[in-house]
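ok so for the tutorial part 2 we go from a plain amino acid sequence to predicted structure tokens. step 1 is just haveing the sequence, like this:
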Amino acid sequence: FFGAWRYVGTWIDGKPRAGRGANPKGMIYYDPSGAMAAQIAPDRHVKMAGPEPTPEEAKAAFADYVAYFGTYTIDERAGTVTHHRQGNVQPGDRPDLVRSYEFVGDRLILRPVGSKQEVVWERFK
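step 2 — the prediction. this is what the tokens look like for a chain of 125 residues:
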């Protein structure tokens, strides 16, 4: 797990997740001390009418953007990693996210437990 992983994409039932554009960017990082952080930025640019965003512009900028940090624990027997979020841009989200994990070559595949979604990351080289 340790290290930085770049975002490859998200699939639901084998189809690309809509809403993030053609080339979203992201990174997830796990360090040996148990700290982690994740960000996924959609591939779009929100134009602002003035020097400060309007409420609508700010909402559009954060739509489908994922960003959080905290700690993590791994349960090797269950094949899961739990992200214990301490800060998060998604309002009202639960603090702990449990994901099953699988390593395939240089890729880390995270799946929300009970979901058909796959979030694929590739180790930075």
